[in-house]
Specification:
Elements (H helix, E strand, L loop, with lengths): L2 E3 L3 H23 L8 H23 L13 H13 L10 H24 L5 H33 L3 H7 L1 E3 L12 H21 E2 L4 E4 L2 E4 L7
Length: 230
């Protein structure tokens, strides 16, 4: 079966950097002592994740057909029909995100922004414990959504004999008509997306002082950790 182009380059760049930043922040949070200097890289990864989400949010309004927010399958009856179809072996295909992945993507973006925002507010020194509680709730909710999303991708791939992660590599899916495909993967905007992400990470790296654990970003100083007394 011929595979048609549905996902553009900016979407795919965002997807894999989203995974990278999330896994980096998650692994550091679970394996590194929060009092050590290395834990601050959890916060830097979180800020990078938040920036990636902001770029994706812009692309959700100006991107190609299946990248746009209003083309996500977010109607409740579509979600119910999708789950029912899994049980009844319905062969319906979705050109872009199916209802389950549409909802999980929206939730992950919202929770990622919540994590980045609460993480940022924790560094300002005001109501730190309160924001830590919100941050932990958002982090646990994020993990639940991620696990459900991964399971959903696995079930969909087995059910429809379609390996969805491949679509986020080459942008193509089976069972899509030429009318539902996109004419271009927008490689230039994909390059711009990648360049902006790398530039932001570079700015974070150059602006962060590991000795003082302070990050000077756009005229604002964020204290990412306490300096150990010698």
């Amino acid at each position: 079966m011929k595979r048609e182009l549905v996902y553009d380059w900016p979407m795919r760049v965002f997807h894999w950097f989203f995974v990278l930043f999330f896994l980096t922040a998650f692994i550091i949070a679970k394996t590194v002592d929060s009092e050590t200097v290395n834990f601050t890289y959890h916060m830097l990864a979180g800020l990078s994740l938040g920036f990636a989400v902001l770029l994706r949010w812009i692309w959700a309004f100006i991107g190609t057909r299946h990248a746009r927010l209003w083309n996500f399958a977010l109607k409740p009856h579509e979600l119910m029909s999708y789950f029912k179809g899994i049980l009844t072996r319905d062969q319906k295909r979705w050109a872009g995100h199916n209802p389950a992945s549409s909802w999980s993507a929206l939730l992950m973006v919202f929770l990622a922004l919540t994590l980045a925002t609460t993480g940022y507010l924790m560094t300002t020194g005001n109501d730190k414990e309160l924001f830590e509680d919100y941050h932990e709730i958002a982090a646990n909710s994020f993990m639940i959504v991620v696990v459900l999303h991964v399971l959903g991708v696995a079930v969909h791939s087995l059910r429809h004999k379609e390996w969805l992660p491949l679509a986020m590599l080459d942008g193509k899916k089976e069972g899509v008509s030429s009318e539902q495909s996109i004419p271009s993967s927008k490689p230039f905007f994909g390059f711009v997306f990648l360049a902006l992400l790398l530039l932001f990470v570079s700015v974070l790296s150059k602006s962060y002082n590991s000795e003082t654990r302070a990050l000077k970003l756009f005229g604002v100083t964020l204290q990412l950790g306490e300096v150990e007394e010698k």
